[in-house]
Design a protein that fits this description.
Elements: H1 2-37, H2 45-62, H3 64-81, H4 84-90, H5 95-98, H6 100-137, E1 142-146, E2 149-156, E3 159-168, E4 174-184, E5 189-201, E6 204-214, E7 226-234, H7 239-246, H8 257-267, H9 272-299, H10 308-334, H11 340-364
Antiparallel strand pairs: 1-2, 2-3, 3-4, 4-5, 5-6, 6-7
Helix pairs in contact: 1-2, 1-3, 1-6, 2-6, 3-9, 3-10, 6-9, 9-10, 9-11, 10-11
């Protein structure tokens, strides 16, 4: 038990050291990138630092597999150089038993990353997107989904327009049961429009079955209302901006994702991408354990045998290969080419089996 705790402490320290080094590099590189992105806008250096800090957790979350691979390599190479690994094996400890503590740490790290780091990334990425859009355009457009339907905001120098729709088609190009509420720059309401549908076409909403109520103070809105079979309302929105406003699955906490999936489907969107992401997050602890096994298979060797650099390079490249396969499987799952569960869980299980096979071959082959 004491030896397991010792290995776990060494592995946790190795992970912490690698995480600090890579996080520092990420922050510095991202600060330069933020400076480049907002060079043409009136964004101060302090505001760029805030953007960098908000964007850093998402990048760190993405490089967690690399941190796990490098942490495993650092652990076992340091144990090999100090001959502690040789002594451990001489005492009757097999490689499988020596890996129990690192695997437990990887499992805990994966659970913490899914349940705590993931929600933090969702919050910071949302705040980053809001600030970045505000700095770029001043007028913010945002799409949110709730039990009441879709809420879309478009704006500019002349004012804001709030759009509510009961439902949408799968790509948000057509909204149904639509209400447009327009506000002047001063914040006063200008007009209200209700329509059976609104299609986004060439910089304008094409409304069908529309009715307009003017909301000018002192004016009878119903008496001055007008109806139109087809009505065109100008907009600066595009389909790409609407999809970007909907955000990536990582922008939603894993705890809120089941409810968000239900709301998306009720609103008419396809939630397959969100389902794949949720299952992938649940499978992430197993994937990190598989990476530990793969990295250990190449680094649990005595340094006297030579070829340490080649073994480390092979471990990193194989880890990147597994990460690529996992990402590719997720893309296939999002496109409907393979089932959701297979897209999310196949790569983690394959990583574990591959790591065990390499480890057993190295130890007993």
């Amino acid at each position: 038990m004491i030896l397991h705790l010792y290995f776990a402490r060494r592995f946790a320290l190795a992970l912490l050291m690698i995480a600090i080094v890579l996080s520092t590099i990420v922050v510095l590189v991202d600060l330069i990138d933020q400076t480049r992105k907002f060079a043409d806008y009136d964004v101060s250096f302090a505001e760029r630092i805030v953007l960098t800090i908000l964007n850093a957790p998402e990048t760190i979350n993405q490089i967690l597999p690399l941190i796990m691979i490098l942490g495993t390599v650092v652990l076992f190479i340091s144990l090999a150089r100090s001959s502690e690994l040789v002594v451990t094996r001489a005492a009757g400890r097999s490689a499988a038993r020596a890996l129990l503590a690192p695997l437990a740490v990887a499992l805990i790290a994966g659970i913490v990353a899914t349940t705590m780091l993931g929600p933090m990334v969702a919050a910071t990425s949302k705040r980053y997107a809001t600030l970045a859009e505000g700095y770029r355009s001043g007028g913010i457009s945002a799409l949110s989904v709730s039990d009441e339907g879709l809420w879309l905001r478009q704006g500019g120098d002349t004012g804001q327009t709030v759009i509510r729709a009961g439902r949408s088609n799968t790509d948000a190009s057509v909204l149904y049961d639509v209400t447009f509420l327009s506000y002047a720059a001063s914040g006063n309401p200008v007009q209200r429009i209700e329509a059976t549908s609104a299609a986004l076409e060439n910089g304008a909403w094409a409304l069908r079955g529309a009715k307009i109520w003017p909301l000018t103070a002192g004016l009878n809105a119903e008496a001055n209302a007008t109806t139109h079979d087809v009505l065109s309302v100008e907009t600066t929105l595009t389909l790409d901006r609407i999809r970007e406003s909907l955000g990536t699955p990582a922008g939603v906490s894993v705890w809120d994702m089941p409810t968000f999936i239900t709301q998306l489907e009720q609103a008419g969107f396809s939630a397959r991408q969100q389902r794949v992401w949720l299952q992938s997050e649940l499978a992430r602890p197993l994937f990190l354990m598989g990476l530990v096994l793969v990295a250990a298979a190449f680094s649990m060797r005595h340094t006297r045998f030579g070829g340490t650099g080649t073994a480390v390079l092979a471990a990193v490249l194989l880890g990147f290969g597994l990460y690529f396969i996992r990402s590719f499987a997720q893309i296939l799952g999002e496109n409907g080419q393979i089932p959701v569960l297979f897209a999310a869980w196949a790569a983690p299980f394959a990583s574990i089996l591959l790591g065990l096979g390499l480890l057993l071959h190295a130890e007993d082959g």
